[in-house]
Amino acid sequence: MKAYLIPGNKEDLKSRNYQAVLNMYKELGYEPKFVPIDWKYKTIDDWIKQVRSKIPKKDLADSLLSGFSFGSMIALTVASQVNPKRLLLFSLSPYFKEDFPLPKSYVNWAGKRRIENFKKVSFNKLAVLINCPTLIFVGSKEISKYEDTDYRSNEAKKRIKNSKLVLIKDVGHDVDDSKYVAEIRKALK
Predict the structure, then answer these.
(1) What single DSSP character describes residue 1?
(2) What's the whole-model pTM score?
(3) Is the Cβ–Cβ distance between 73 and 136 less than 8 Å?
(4) Chain centroid to CA 135
(5) How many domains does the chain have?
(6) Spatial separation of the C-alpha atoms in residues 141 and 26, rounded to whole Å
(7) Exposure string over 93-126, b if 16+ CB within 10 A, otherwise e
(8) Which residues pair with 63 in a beta bridge?
């Protein structure tokens, strides 16, 4: 089975050690595939289209789909359209319609056009369309620093049927942390 990994915002394979997650997938018998995203001057709609064009529908329906941060938002949205065998959400970003209004620093960082596009993406509508086993991972340091990430993770657990929330102790917003990777491995065994 293929295991697709969508990176976080403005990141590529070299931005952080995504290879640690890909290697772990391979060790567990998956065929790992990194999904590069062209982030510049794009919105979440554009990113979703990119992923859909890079992963054949047949492959997606018979795979593990995962994403980190904004990549997890993309993975969730794509999974609502074509349910994969399994969905893994790493540090799910809180930029859905239901998360607004966002702190001013978030809005300034993302830009007006992206924010307007995020406001059209309803987590509640997407969540009911997910029909595959879903694991939601979040770091304890991450949720103590970002209250909205804690809220979004818990809402995901409540609203996505057949889901499980995995809290990773002493880890921040960092999917390549060895503790984070170990928890993913443990959950997939």
Answers:
(1) -
(2) 0.95
(3) no
(4) 10
(5) 1
(6) 28
(7) bbbbeebeebeeebeeebeeebbebbbebebeeb
(8) 2
Exposure string over 41-64, b if 16+ CB within 10 A, otherwise e: eebbeebbebbbeebeeebbeebb
pLDDT tens readout for residues 35-85 = 999 999 999 999 999 999 999 988 999 999 999 999 999 999 999 999 999
Strand order in the sheet with 163-168: 31-34, 2-6, 63-68, 86-90, 134-139, 163-168
Single-letter amino acid code for the residue at 168: I
Q: What's the chain's length in residues?
A: 189
CA 171/CA 11 separation, integer angstroms:
19
| Other CB atoms within 10 Å distance of the CB of residue 24 | 17
Structural domain containing residue 108: 2-188
Peptide bond into 101 cis (omega under 30): yes
* Residue 151 CB-half CA count within 13 A: 11
Query: Which conformational region is residue 63 in: left (phi greater than 0), alpha (psi within -120 to 50 degrees), or beta?
Result: beta
Element (H, E) at 123: helix 123-127
Query: How distant, in Å, are the alpha carbons of 1, 76, 106 from that of 18?
Result: 19, 19, 24
